[in-house]
Amino acid sequence: MLRLSSTDPGFAEAFARVVSDRRESAVDVAADVAAIIADVRRRGDGALAELTAKFDRHDLDASGWQIDAPACKAAFDALEPTLRDALELAAARIRAYHVAQLPEDRDYTDAAGVRLGATWNAVDAAGLYVPGGRAAYPSSLLMNAIPAKVAGVARLVVVTPTPGGEVNPLVLAAAHLAGVDEVWRVGGAHAVAALAYGTERVAPVDVVTGPGNAWVAEAKRQLYGVVGIDMVAGPSEILVIADARNEPRRIAADLLSQAEHDPTSQSILICDDAGFADAVAEAVEEELRALATQPTARESWAANGVIIDVADFDEAPALANALAAEHVEIATDDPESLMRRIRHAGSVFLGRLTPEAVGDYVAGPNHVLPTGRRARFSSGLSVLDFMKRTSFIQLDQAALEAIGPAAVALADAEGLPAHARSISVRLGQ
Amino acid sequence: MLRLSSTDPGFAEAFARVVSDRRESAVDVAADVAAIIADVRRRGDGALAELTAKFDRHDLDASGWQIDAPACKAAFDALEPTLRDALELAAARIRAYHVAQLPEDRDYTDAAGVRLGATWNAVDAAGLYVPGGRAAYPSSLLMNAIPAKVAGVARLVVVTPTPGGEVNPLVLAAAHLAGVDEVWRVGGAHAVAALAYGTERVAPVDVVTGPGNAWVAEAKRQLYGVVGIDMVAGPSEILVIADARNEPRRIAADLLSQAEHDPTSQSILICDDAGFADAVAEAVEEELRALATQPTARESWAANGVIIDVADFDEAPALANALAAEHVEIATDDPESLMRRIRHAGSVFLGRLTPEAVGDYVAGPNHVLPTGRRARFSSGLSVLDFMKRTSFIQLDQAALEAIGPAAVALADAEGLPAHARSISVRLGQ
To answer: Is the pLDDT of residue A308 over 70?
Structure first.
């Protein structure tokens, strides 16, 4: 853990190093992924079967290419009631938040008599990548699938690796609850390629979202433009701004809730009371001792944890904007005034009773958020990632007479005479 | 020009070939571009100066790295009055359409007592690539710069190559009108790299938009994630749905307005009257004879032009949705009913008096639109490309008691005990 104080002479440089440390994998898998994509494009299902046998060690023809709807429903029905209720509460709350996010169409006629507008439509089909093994989170499936269904996507396809043929019943239950239409037992870059280009069995989709390892992320990047994708995701991160009126162990728990994800995760505390910050650091050590995910959380906190002492929280917004963190918790008396000055953040958690983890599961807003300072220019996943806008224009003769000549002048100036002609021929010129 | 009829036995296959023909450059510049990006990252301005001397044949230290605001204003003031008025009308109308597009923040408390919302903010800085030479269109500068300024971008930077040191006064005039803050005389992949990573002179930006050649497009793709980018752009295209009650030369002019852009552009006509379609084809030949851009337009029409005869316009929406064209003109008696069934299109032009070219210049909606069937999943440029959303959540004790236990159950099920702990420690458990 790194301890910085904003009054130290070297603070600006040390903080700049924290900001610029992207903590992202430098593994270059571009060539491997390009070869896999080409292979799937060329050989289709044959490539999928071969790569699945190689990476996941099972035979798709024997274990089944798809997991059918009754299997997903059975997994849901078999859930322990508390867990089923929790999943249903999460799904209902996520759905409600995203329904309220649906964009409105526009249609109006302006002073020049020009009718203008825009219509939103869902994409026809979306593909959702769900990692296998440890990182197969039902909450993540809900956070990706529900916005797609709320947007109106008719065909929602999950691809997920099932290493050794084993499936994750929680993920199947979530797929049932979210209304997923197809579940394919393929993962890796080859699954993304299948979604983008289609194979004999898998029909292509228009958008691919969802988390994945370096191969999956690179496949999405290479296929961007063939399909739409969500933002490139990096290691998770939290910035906690907390004053001395908090309980240290609560703030410690919040920092560790991020650290337990992965050794590359980052937890940062900004505090205006060095004594309280010391207490939090101690509480982190104490909490770590009892934590089942201790090895990961300890590694993350040791390598990437930061405590920044500030003289006044007035300094916090500038630091927060430079970090542009995925999650920002503001546990102070007046969180609102700080939030108003934080322009770059994925999601903000206000007050002492809003631990970030409620946002991961049940609050309603999406937990797929920009990482690695990408909150400077990108947003969390939303219904808009599964929709697109078509603008429209309608002129009558009067409107064309009013604005057409200006278009003719500009087309002529740009050396595009056919553009000018398509207008002037309607002006009787 | 290819003539198809929907009643031909081989129509489905022939139409599928039209749909799958992306007409995009297959030149692989990925390695070249990666080397240029690495060079700019390493050597900064030194690399920019060297690459500009190589590609644009002028010395930045001699000709000046930047074009200053007075020079842009002088170019604007020197415009011929008709052209200046036309640019001002275009800018005012583009501004009005995009102002109406600004998203609203959300802030509400739901039945469980959870406060939820989202705040939109502009990115701090945006970079706009403006091609040099023939394709340096002032209208394109307005269409990129005005949405950025309407979004609230404080620093808007143009990069543009000036081959041989020559600048395009129309582009400078448009930069003045749109309120561009900086104009740098650098182009190519190196200019995009400078925008993304910054150099000694050029401060980095958060989003890069604007058209460019294969090198520029590949640089944007490689830097996606370091900065935000607009959609990858391909050759332009128009689909015209026209009945026999149109004047053939008007429809011909519309088809040619797309064809004159580039030999790779595509113009497609869907018509329910073979005789009228013949008349349009003849009118295209006639119009071509008088056209200053004839060589390009003729090449495009010969190589990529398509006329599709249909028995009934009822067939048109399915064809239009498969093509997912950048521009769709509907020149029929009831364009509205067809538009309602077209889900995938960049922009729709309704009726006999709305040639696509009015949308290129003065209608107001953005002319930067998805090409190459990307309207299936992406939208035209908008203020949203220069903004991002921060969600927020606030719970009080009652709200946490209401939804917290479900989050604890899910965190436990996902094997994330520190997530659960950050909530349970606030529930007094």
So the answer is: yes
Range of the domain at B307: 234-376
Tell me which H or E stretch contains A239: strand A237-242
In a domain, A114, yes or no: no
Helical H segments across B291-383, by residue range: 294-304, 316-323, 335-339, 356-361
Q: Are residues A256 and A360 in the same domain?
A: yes
Q: Residue type at A233?
A: A
ipTM comes to 0.96
- For residues A142 and A418, the answer to whether their CB atoms sit within 8 Å is no
Alpha-carbon radius of gyration of chain B = 25
Judged by CB atoms closer than 8 Å, whether chains meet at A134 and B415 is answered as yes
- Answer positive or negative: Cα dihedral of A44, A49, A53, A56: positive
Q: Per the domain annotation, does B419 fall within a domain?
A: yes
List C-alpha distances in Å: A276 to A243, A247, A250, B233, B237: 8, 9, 12, 53, 63
Please write the tens of the pLDDT for every residue from A193-215: 999 999 999 999 999 999 988 89
- The active-site residue out of B218, B287, B326, B329 is B326
> In 3D, which of B264, B297, B283 has the Cα closest to residue B21?
B264
Mean pLDDT over B220-247 rounds to: 92
Phi, psi of B189 (to 5 degrees): -60, -30
Q: B48 to chain A, minimum CA–CA distance in Å?
A: 23
Q: Say which residues have a Cβ less than 8 Å from residue A13's Cβ, sequence separation at least 6.
A: none
For residues B261 and B344, membership in a common domain is answered with yes
| Residue B386 in domain | no
A90/B116 Cβ within 8 A: no
Strands (E), B47-181: 106-109, 115-122, 125-129, 155-159
* pLDDT one-digit tens code per residue, B384-421: 999 999 999 999 999 999 999 999 999 999 999 999 99
Q: Which of A108, A280, A400, A423 to mutate to test the interface with B (most CBs of B within 10 A)?
A: A423
Tell me, yes or no, whether B102 and B248 share the same domain: no
For the domain that residue B160 is a member of, what is the CATH number? Answer: 3.40.50.1980
